[in-house]
Amino acid sequence: MTEAEIKKHSVRTLAIQTGPKHLSNSLSFQRVAAWIQENIKKKECIYFQRDPSKGELICYCGYLEDYHTEEAKKPENFVGQSWDRHKHVKEEQTDAFGRITFGGSVQRVAEYARVSTETKSETLYKLLTEQWRLSPPNLLISVTGGAKNFYLKPHLKKVFHRGLIKVAQTTGAWIITGGTHAGVMRHVGQAVRDYALSNTMQGEIVAIGVATWGAIHNRHVLKYEEGKSKANYAIDTQGQGPLSCLDNNHTHFLLVDDGTHGKYGVEIELRAKLEKYISSRNLGNKVNGVTIPVVCVVLDGGTGTLNTIYNAMLNDTPCVILEGSGRIADVIAQVYGLPVSQITIDSIKELLKNFFSQEYGNFKEHDIIEWTKTIQDIIRMSHLLTIYRAREDKHGDVDVDVAILQALLKASKTGGSRGAAAWKRQLELAIAWNRVDIAEKEIFTEESQWKSSELHWAMFLALTGNKPQFVSLLLDNGLDLEEFLRDDETLCELYQELPNCFFLYKLAKRVKPSGFSKRSGGRMARVRTGEKISLFHVSAEVRHLLGKFTKHIYPQPTGSYKQKCLVRTKVYKDETGFDDQLSEAEPKRDACRDLFLWAVVHKNKALAEIAWAQSRDSISAALAASKILKKMAREGSDADETQDMKELASYYEDHAIGVFNVCNRHDEERAKNLLVRISSFWGKTTCLRLALEADNKDFVAQSGVQAHLNQIWCGELSVDNPVWKVLICIFFFPLIFTNFLLYRHDEILQRQNEKKEEIKSVEKVTGSTVRTNNHRLQNQHNEKPLGWWPKLVGLYCSPQVKFYGNIVSYFAFLFLFAAVLMVDFQRTPSAGELLLYIWLFSLVCEEIRQLFYDPDSFGIRKKAKMYIHELWNILDVLSILLFCLGLGFRMTTELFYAGKVILCIDFVVFCLRLMAIFTISRTLGPKIIIIKKMMMDMFFFMFMLSIWVVAYGVAKQGILIHNENRLNWILRGAVYEPYLIIFGNFPKNFENSEFDKNSCSINASEPFKPKCPELNDNEMPAFPEWLSIIMLCVYLLFANILLLNLLIAIFNFTFQEVQDNTDKIWMFQRYELIKEYHSRPNAPPPFIIFSHLRLLISNMFPCCSPTRPNEFKKELKKTDEEELLLWESLMKDIYLVSVRQRQSQSMENRILDTSQSCVLCCCFSSASLAVPDKSFESLKNAAEEEESLHVKSRQLYYSNSKIKRFPVPEEKVPWQVSFSLYEPRPHLSISHGSNRNPQGRTGITGRGELSCLGPNLNLDLLLTRWRDSERSVLEYLVVLNSNLKSLALPGGPVDSVDQLPGSLKGILGRKVFEALNAKVYKGYVDDCRNTDNAWVETAIINIHLDRTSQIMVDINNMLGGNQGMLQWQEVSSSTRLSPNQRVALDQVAALHIKKL
């Protein structure tokens, strides 16, 4: 396939299904039936004429009289006519089709149709593919052989079944047989049955039976009845008589009808036409020049099978014969590999006698001669013949599938196409079959040399066809990914060819936002004609999935195309930010990244794994894939697809963890750089940022990541400093000048000094100078210890010190707040209260700074969402709002006390905010996470508890109190008191003995007393005491015992569930705390207000603002980045090796490897699996040596006509050999006198199609030239034949060898024709037109032309106007000339010192 052919799909409709995966696509049987009745016919006898040889009631057609219509039984309609199959059988609408159900323990259903022998192959193919919904095959396997039951050896039967099904399963082949329950068809059916029983979850094998309708037993049950789609068919081998039953293991049947009954072989012609039509279809429904290959597999068989093999090979169909299956198969297998001269009539007789036993007595001498000639012709076409030999004593007989595929590849090597075209066809077949093992052994050999550009089409097929093994194979054999994806159009076509997936749906929406609609759980999007996916759309969607903090990974469009895309994608503008970053440098392209991303977005794990293994920025790639998949999982609606995405995201996170850990073990400094390096391949972001955005807690929890966060947390201080030392130095900073605190800079100097001493010691021992690339080590004499000012700045700029300072400040704030509330809260604010207000104002400014501080370019919307998502920020906002509300009330006279109440409540919120200080603690931090989880459990528990509280409270209140109208007392009785009962506070008005009339109000007139219950005549409560006690007991049983214990159990479950992951969650969440204090101003509140003023001034005057180093994001130099990525690739390879080792050490893989090794050993020891006794090259050479005898002159039919030659075996060719049975058939016979073919007998006499008896002269012109001035390549001029499969030298018939043929004038032109003149030589030509009395002789002229001659100019002018029919070809061993012309070319090449 050329590049242009690959890109021909520039316009494609996108149809994406994101609803349920399995939607029914079965056609209505009524619609299929209507199509069959309209297009498929049967044949029926219209004239009943009794056949005297069969009986009174049987017609010549074989059917009984009752089978015929009334019109057919009227003899007066056919007076004087004799029954003729061509005249008295006509086509009618078929009456037998539908689904056939076979009885038995396992019911099997097959499609079937009764078809006429005149049915076009195109119609049958449409029936199979469009109506019966079969996928077009990648291979057609025609199985032929014995039609009667024959014995097949157990080991051969096992090997045949397994191999046939394997090749059909792996290549997507159709198997075509005779379809009956006998002979080789039965064996094929059993193989299909065994596969169906062992592979219930995979697609079925297509086995099509093409049988004769008139020879089928019980065919009357197959007649179609209205309203009945299935026919129940029973296999009755006992009562079938001379007829045959259908095989119950085939999947489809074409029952061929010629209007006769009991006649076998009716289907042969239609089957041959159908197979030929299928073989003319393009492979994969693409216009690529490669058609569906056909192979014939032969088991057993009689003499009819011999003709089938011969005709198949004449049509260039390779045949695989199973030796040991019996009869004609074994006869051919025995003579395979022998020179044709040794295949004599006597040897064939002996073989026929051995393998046909009793049948041999019925053979005639003439038939044996014809079969000998046929076998010789079959052996001569050795490139189309493969003998499979299975040995009973070996266990490696598993390669029937390999033999079948090797036969096809062997045929393609020596077929019409040679050289690069042949290798290309073989590779395309191997890709279509998905047989990488065949490609490795047969295609990618030392004989075939591939350039990277020659494999681009194959790579495209392998990617779009989901053939990961072929992708690896192509990469291993020289394909350059950078060159393959250099053109943007190739990558766009890959996205255009994506299978139905969620990402394709999203792309379709971007191409045409309004062009999708929701239908019944699925979503369908279509792109208008003339529009296609561009990298701009891909980049926008990937940025949406990764997050707005990233940049576009592909360049954005310019000019009018940009405006067009922006209009179409305006619904995504807020998400993708098309208007920003336009002035930035163009994003880097990386082929491995592009291929990895393409595979990830449609969840192709195998292809993504291959691309990831080739990539350089592997950690970033794995984390980006995890982020993309998790985002698509959140946006998707299919539960199964979402789960697959989550599992794949976790898989890539494991990859990132594995590679990073290997990096961290080898070099911690480089591993840290990988974390914070800005990746130019993944949107200018970092690995750490991607991991955080993807919520990859496991990655962030790795020791290397945490060590880097600890380093950022400590700033310039050493991570080894105890906390108590840091706290002391915060208040007594002069201690830092006494080395009381360790600094990171000092540790670096110490390590450098140790390294230098180590190098010196090595040099002293070895006596040689150690070379190093460590620039810091070489220049360490420039490094000096920190001075007092850097130490002081390093102390107070450390995020750790900032945190401790803010804690102290916050405690001071709370102390001041409490003092104001309890001691100094006056009508006029005091100095302490004013200080409190200033302090709070500084806190408000800091919260505003945190909200708008956006170093990662999230955008204000995303930043606000992140801010609100944090619990501590919610408490901050709530506390500030309450404080502002309380302050507003406090400033008024009327609401002064209310303001104080609000401020007191606000103090509680501020105190709760104090819990945030524990988040940095490794011990208490995880407990805060558990408390958060339990709060969620508590919320749902309180909802459940409230149901019981309200239910009991309302019932109790209604029973005790009559018509209470005070709302506060209603709520107290219905809600508050039942709630207190849970904690043991029981009311006293339940029992009459404790009732006190003075403690309540009779008519609710006293506001501070509850209303008394209804009283009886004794002034005691009238309610039933026993009922209230029972209700109380039930309430306590459920509320106190059941629900409270349930709450405890929930808490315990939550604790156990979260406990295992709290460390990871804490490590993940502490990043935000570290990042907050890394960017936080140094001074704590309220002094932080001065830092805010400085920030305000610096923002107003950017030129004056100093740049601060960002520990979370680092831009490396190009050379440093390349070196770091190269090192990362090495670490990734080490990781992949360790992964493979772990996999190989698993028990299952050990068993599998052992079994494969055993099979491999057996295969090597079994030297004859599909391998002949002699190599193919030796057979080919032997055949070429015998080409001197006229082979084409003795082919079965004369010159593509129906005239059959008398068979002349090889030994009977010479006239000197006696051949008493020789009776050649005359053709245009005239008096031939003494003219006799000098090469021997041909099987036909007369002039034939030649112009005269005796020799018929032909003259060919061999024009040669050097391709270039260096004389490195010799070329010759050829004419492409009309069949476009072979080449020939220009020439034509002549009357004398002294003149040029007139046809050359039309080929070469008048100028060139008149300029030619040279000497000639003659030779016999093996031509299919030759007879015993007329033959062709040729003379070949060689003229070597100078590249600058006038004749060359005229010839080149001719080449430009003959549409490629005349062309120069390189002289090579793969030339496609006839044998005599090849001999002449060999001689000419030898003259020019050029061997073929």
Could you walk me through the main structural features you see in this protein, from its secondary elements to its overall organization?
By secondary structure, the protein is an alpha/beta fold. The chain is built from 49 helices and 23 strands. The chain has a ten-stranded mixed sheet, with helices on both faces. The chain starts with a helix and ends in a 5-residue tail after the last helix.
Give a brief description.
InterPro entries: Ion_trans_dom, NUDIX_hydrolase-like_dom_sf, TRPM, TRPM-like, TRPM_SLOG. Helices cover 48% and strands 9% of the residues. It is an alpha/beta fold and 1396 residues long.
Helix content: 40-55%
DSSP summary, beta strand count: 23
Quaternary structure state of the chains depicted: single chain
Strand content is 5-15%
Shape: elongated
- Structural class, judged by helices and strands? alpha/beta
Strand order in the sheet with the most strands: 8-3-4-9-7-6-5-10-11-12
The biggest beta sheet is recorded as: 10 strands, mixed
The value of Rg in angstroms is 46 Å
What are the low-pLDDT stretches, counting only 5+ consecutive residues below 50? 1-26, 514-530, 566-584, 773-781, 1157-1188
Distance between the termini: 29 Å
Output the number of helix runs. Answer: 49
- Quote the average pLDDT: 79
Protein name: Transient receptor potential cation channel, subfamily M, member 2
InterPro entries: Ion_trans_dom, NUDIX_hydrolase-like_dom_sf, TRPM, TRPM-like, TRPM_SLOG
Membrane topology: Multi-pass membrane protein
Family: Belongs to the transient receptor (TC 1.A.4) family. LTrpC subfamily. TRPM2 sub-subfamily.
